[in-house]
Amino acid sequence: MSLESLDAQLISKALEKREYILGQARKEAERIKAQAQAEVERIKEMTNAAIENILKGEARAVYDRIVGGAQLEGRKKVMNARLQVINQVFDRARDELDRLTKSQEYPQILVALASEAIEALDEDCIVYANENDAEYLKTHMELLPINHTVKIEHAPFDIEGGVTVVSMDGSKTMENTLEGRFEARREFLIPKVAEILEVI
Questions:
Q1: 128 backbone φψ class: left, alpha, beta (φ>0; ψ -120 to 50)
Q2: Which residue of 56, 83, 125, 177 sits 20 to 30 Å from the alpha carbon of 21, by its own alpha carbon?
Q3: 116 and 3 in contact (C-beta within 8 Å)?
């Protein structure tokens, strides 16, 4: 399975889950937005009642200050709601990545991630993975590129969903994990998610 095909599958699965998540997120965003707008209206009404009891000159200054503050607070609440919805989408996508590491497709994905990192490093190397992934790779060495000497080791650090490949002399490192790929694309995806959710 090529990396492009693998990426296409990941994107396709993510898009399916995203549609469901987007529906939920839109409902939540509308609810939060409605609450924020209702709060602004409530504050405006309270402000209007108080202003009627104050002299006209002072009333205008008080009104502007209170309404301006309410509008600012309302904008803050809407912005916080938008950020909350976007973060929920990314949290659910991260959960989907966790489920992917337990799926039947994952061994193919793991081999593709390891192969890509080995080829990118292009020298004798050590492939570090979590215990289960390292065992799988050791028993399926024939699936990895054989241009160089490759050792498979259990990582002394936490790796989920992929590998870290280090040159034998330790001078070069290539991380190729699902989480790393997700984080690398996150900043690029935030505006797209916001646009899809209509929370810009």
A1: beta
A2: 177
A3: yes
Token pair for 21: 């998540």
- Please identify which residue in the block is written with the tokens 């998540």: 21
For tokens 């590998």, what's the residue? Answer: 163
Model confidence at 28, in pLDDT bands (50, 70, 90)?
confident
Distance between CA atoms of 14 and 97, rounded to whole angstroms?
9
Percent helix, strand, coil in the chain (nearest 5)? 70, 10, 20
Interhelix angle 3-51/106-121, rounded to 10 degrees, is 100
Residues 117-131, buried b or exposed e (16+ Cβ, 10 A)? bbeebeeebbbbbbe
Strand positions, DSSP E, the chain: 125-129, 150-154, 162-167, 173-177
Q: What is the pLDDT of residues 47-106, one digit of tens each?
A: 666 566 555 667 677 777 887 787 888 778 877 877 887 788 888 888 888 898 899 999
Which is it for strands 150-154 and 125-129: parallel, antiparallel or unpaired? parallel
Q: Give which of 173, 177, 127 is closest to 148, Cα–Cα.
A: 127
* pLDDT over 90 (residue 129): yes
Question: If DSSP codes are grouped into helix, strand and coil, which group holds residue 165?
Answer: strand
